[in-house]
Amino acid sequence: MTGLSDNDLQALRGVGDPPLEARLPPIGDGGPEFWQAYLGLAGRRGLDVCAHLDDPGVADENFVLSKGGALRAVWGAAEDLGRQIIDEGLPYRQLDHAQLLFGTYGQEISAALLLAALPEAYAARWGSEVLYATGPLRSNPTRRVRGTAQFLATVLTPPPKGHVWQDTGRAFRAVTGLRLFHHAVRQVFTAPRADGAFRYQLSPENEVPINQEDLLATRLMFSITVFEVLEKFGIVWPEDSQLAYLQAWYVIGRFLGIGSDAALDKAGVLVGPCGQPQPERRAAVEPPTVAGARALLEVLRRRQWPGVYPFRQTSEFRYRCATGGRDDASLVQGRNLLRALLQGLSGAMPARSANWPLAVMRELVPPVVGYRLALGSNGAVLSALNNLPGRRAPVARFTAISLPNRLGARLLREMANEVARNSVVAFLQSPDPPAFVVPGLEQWSVGVAARGAP
Amino acid sequence: MNNLAEKAGGAFVTTAWITDFVDAGWIDEVVATADTDLRAHRVALTHHYLSRMIDWWIAGCDSVWSRLDHQRSLAASPSNANWFTFATWATVTVNRDLSLRRTPAGTARLLPAPLRRSLTPVLLHLRASDGQRISRALSWAQRVVFVSTARIALAWLVSPDGGIDEATRTEVNNSVTAAASWPADNQPVIVSVNNGHLNGLWEAFGYYAEARAVHAGFEGDPAAWLGAKRGDNLRRSTPEVRTRVRDALVARYVLRANLLITAIEQDILDEAVGEVLDQVPELATRTLVRRAALWGDRYLKVPREITALQLPFQWRPATWRAAGMWARFLTDQVLVLALPSETLRLGRDVPPLDASQPFFPPDLYDLATLPLVGPVDTDDGQAVPKDVGMTTALCDFVGAFDRTRRDGLGSAARDWRRYDERMNWAATLLRSRQQDPTLYWCPYAQEDQARLRRGELPHGGGDPSDFEVTAPVTGLPTQYRI
Questions:
Q1: CA gap A306, A294 in Å, rounded
Q2: Whether the Cβ atoms of residue A248 and residue A163 lie closer than 8 Å to each other
Q3: In a domain, A71, yes or no
Q4: A256 lies in a domain?
Q5: Is A325 an 8 Å CB contact of chain B?
Q6: How far apart are CA B53 and CA B440, in angstroms?
């Protein structure tokens, strides 16, 4: 099996979600307005927009959505695609294992996502542009983070009984909603306005926003980055646990249209250099081993995280020309996204530990991300702890990894958990819609939220 | 009288010999000054006069020194320190590190007096070691930054109001590149400028020009910056409101220029700063390697050449960690910036200028919106007004560097070698101190200015932390002003 090359990934940048695009019923006139209204409704009510269609006020709120039952038809088409995936068979044993891991290490995983995976996504040179353009950054910087956390809790929290991946289950509805949300972003960003101009002027690399390359990278950041962070906390999952968690994200990815056959066909990934079909290359998108997934993420990171040379000549001539000699066009967007994230996280912390989110982030992300996002460095104590001699731990028969010093790892883990805990409480107590709810603990969520009410 | 004085045409009061210092011939003379110590003082003094000239260029009779000369209150309207104003004091602070005759800035605070007496020779010895590498790196970096900023500033100052033409731009770029390169030994220098830097500097000085245009023309035609609808609304308001909006807009253009020039200057200096801060760990490593090589040769019969070649590679992780800790120690305990009315430690959060006042000046407090003008409706088919584009870009630019939470908390640098750490601190400093008029004080007494002009070293170092700077007295006749 050969991995994805630079050319493959470049081709995947031009592909969105072909199966969904083929199946969705035509909206008719006003398509972009329909999808704009969809984004607004999802932002206010949550991803499961169909659940709120009969709520009082929704029809008045967005007349476009109520027009001709278009939304129900669109939702139904997306659900059909999801059902196909369920019919093909899901690895339920591994999904259960992943949910068990999330139940055990929920705080650490949440911390990894908030303090490492999100910053890593913001450091991406092209994806950050779309994130910046879509986010209600100035009006409500924490809404996106809360939405991401809600999605994660919805798809990974084990239900009290039954299975979360049934076609009427909450996880199924969340992934269906997110898939349509991504589609709506693509439609809104690529549709010209009445005067011919585009609502958002994205760079040529984002001709298709939320494309297959960005989706692949995000999926791996939500899984492999978690392993990397847990290792920094001194926690090493055995290989089968890592594989189960990775498989869970592969399943979530399939529901979101990541790496579908149609997408790979369209990008020409399944065709060899001499035009011969190579169906076995499907595995390159979903590497069957953790090592393979790490290797794929490494390739993506090399593409997405070029070094920072603020005002110097870079090797990328085309990019340099586009930014007038400065390599900071994507950096500014990513850094402002990070600033909004930090403001949200720091605001949730008690005053004396308000700098913990930034301090932990500095230790968790790779150095290049730190430079791209202008994270700065920690003081002498945290740096010294991070530099204490560590130990090695076997993760497979012939593989061992370097673990950090126990003292430093313990301290980092406690700090990260504290940030995650405070953030979740802030999410629960936030007065902005949609309300954050821990699945299976709806009453408890309401109780915690009520404690924060004025 | 040079062309700048002719252009001024007596419209402003020149104190001392301001137009003599803001002159192409003088800048060439400073750049060509061979003596490092003398050149450093000349650079600081020229920065001071350039800052005054740019202040006058933007604000005319509202500039700080015009108001001092005409006995008008400085509190009546806000002043805006430009990049040269800050550079004056940064240069004066760094000048201590260029000279071998004085201890580095910040060490006096760190060391108790008896210890200082015994450690000063060690510090001076360290600085003189390795062919005076610190002094050379710093002075070359200072020269490169000076020549690039001063030449471009001068081109703007003498330009017609239409702006800079391409021929002038090319000519200035060529002269800067020639002065900043070192063709004699055909070696790449660690500190140099390239087109990315120069383009950015031209862009930044364009913001000063825009600030000037706002100051001169905003009250007559606010619609040019605010759009037709909001401009008309403002035109119907009181003159005080219009002046308040104008001042806020001017302050934002100046902040944007200051921040962009600082970002470029810090990129130019990046490697030199690293060289300077890493010098002690490198020297220590080299000494240890030499000792180990000699011992190995003597007692273990391992040729010292082999040990000396291999050991630095084997020790690299430890050396890297030690250098990191040393840089953190220096940043936290030694590095300072001496301003006329305060000495700021780079390893500490930038403190408020006045505890009873807001941390940032009112004109720069909320960068996202312009005070007293309503929001703009961008969906009405109208073009986005200039002020909205500017404030959005300024917010993004500040947000790209600023990692503080509020009131300067989190601005402290930990490792001054890092570009992002320096810019985080600088962004807070520039924004919080931009409207502090004391920054316009002159670092040198009148006699010392004359000495520098003649090519003699000044008696004083211009260092406010050594009480060498005196405040100008409002209302003195111009000829007695320093």
A1: 18
A2: no
A3: yes
A4: yes
A5: yes
A6: 11
A chain contacts of residue B421, beta-carbon cutoff 8 Å: 376-377
Give the tens place of pLDDT for each residue, B246-259: 999 999 999 999 99
Strands (E), B325-395: 336-339, 342-345
Taken in order A141, A143, A144, A146, the sign of the CA dihedral is positive
Pairing relationship of beta strands A400-403 and A391-394 according to DSSP bridges? antiparallel
- CA-based nearest residue to B458, from B473, B468, B471, B472: B468
- Looking at the predicted structure, is the pLDDT value of residue A168 above 80? no
CA B298 to mean position of chain CA atoms: 52
Q: How far apart are CA A377 and CA B447, in angstroms?
A: 45
A335/B contact by beta carbon, under 8 A: yes
**Structural domain for A408, as ranges:** 6-451
Q: Do B325 and A313 touch (CB under 8 A)?
A: no
Domains of chain A: total: 1
Across the interface, of B199, B400, B402, the residue whose CB is closest to A325 is B199
> Smallest Cα–Cα separation from A413: which of A229, A156, A221?
A229
pLDDT at res. A325: 45
> Tell me: the pLDDT tens digits for A297-335?
999 999 988 887 777 654 444 444 444 445 556 688 888
- Kindly state whether residue A271 falls inside one of the protein's structural domains: yes
Structure-token pair, residue A290: 């953790």
B399 with A335: Cβ contact below 8 A? yes
Q: Round to whole Å and give the CA distance between A420 and A426.
A: 10
Task: Assess if residue A1 is contained within a domain.
Answer: no
pTM of the model: 0.86
d(Cα B250, Cα B256) in Å, to the nearest integer?
A: 10
Identify whether the C-beta of residue A427 lies closer than 8 Å to the C-beta of residue A39: no
For the ranges A10-14, A55-59, B101-105, the one whose mean pLDDT is highest:
A10-14
| Burial annotation B437-447 (CB, 10 A radius, 16+ → b, else e) | bbbbbbbbbee
Interface check A346 vs B, CB under 8 A: yes
Selection from B130, B149, B164 nearest residue B43 by Cα: B149
Tokens of A280: 């076995």
